[in-house]
Predict the structure of ATP phosphoribosyltransferase.
Amino acid sequence: MAIPNKGRLNERSIELITKAGINLGDDWGRKLNIKVPDLDLEVFFVRAQDIPIFIDSGAVDFGITGQDVTAEAGKELKNVLNLRFGQCRLSIAAPEESAIARTGKMEDGIRVATSFPYLTRKYFEDRGISAEIVFVQGAAEIMPQLGVSDAISDLVATGSTLRMNRLKEIDTVIESEASVFTTQKVLDDPDKKDRIGEIVDAIRSVLDADGRKYVMADVQKSRLKDVERIIPGIGGPTVVNIAGNDDWVAVQAVISGDDSYRVVSDLKKIGAKGILTMPIERLVE
Ligand SMILES: Nc1ncnc2c1ncn2[C@@H]1O[C@H](COP(=O)(O)OP(=O)(O)OP(=O)(O)O)[C@@H](O)[C@H]1O
Ligand SMILES: O=P(O)(O)OC[C@H]1O[C@H](OP(=O)(O)OP(=O)(O)O)[C@H](O)[C@@H]1O
Ligand SMILES: [Mg+2]
């Protein structure tokens, strides 16, 4: 498995796979590869941009990286899970005061600075515009001011970098999100497909738990109808007897984090005791 060793996708990738129960040990910040005990899994820490090539060539079987760099690599990879982070878009932008920004029209001869030459060239070719692509490693946003280009094609998330550099977004080339990628060849191998499926399921369980809480409370048996109204839950709340107490039961349920305030105050109103809410690490439905 390959995961980004630095940059925007690194931290969330590590957090996800750790929560999924993949133990990276203590050395992962320094070592570029970690053998995960018990799982027969080796994790490689490499640049997000290189991961599509490593997956495509079979150097690794699967990995986490952005849809943007995967599309830029021009490889036919299989996206097996969207990870709900690293959301951004590759966009064309031009200086606010330029004719391009005012009219939104892009004409032959336009010079576009980008670290995404493949996707940007394709974008202009598809529109029949002959553009000059100026490849830069980063900081594309400064290129119009430097006179290096008329426009840029770069990643936008909140838009604050564009605003700070007085650039106006003209059009989206592609939307992107971090995802788990593999190849059809790997999926055609039943053994690898099963093992990657298991890891992907574990990662999905972390995503599904996100924002949900586990609530527990003791209530009088006579108030159980009220509890069902307060906590619709996944298939309704679980009800457990309390040893030595025939009138009270313990109820437990998964709730959405947004509901937590309402659920707790409604449970209090019906006389519940020992109300507890807890974060959920994984949820396998
Ligand atoms: N502002 C952002 N918000 C969300 N995701 C982003 C953002 N910028 C980049 N990404 C995602 O993170 C991936 C890696 O970007 P990152 O900036 O970490 O790499 P880099 O620019 O090549 O490296 P570095 O910035 O460390 O030199 C991008 O390909 C994209 O999928
Ligand atoms: O729309 P925004 O929220 O401002 O995000 C967009 C910026 O984020 C990325 O850069 P990053 O911060 O990763 O720095 P980099 O240029 O070193 O990659 C990207 O290259 C943009 O410059
Ligand atoms: Mg960056």
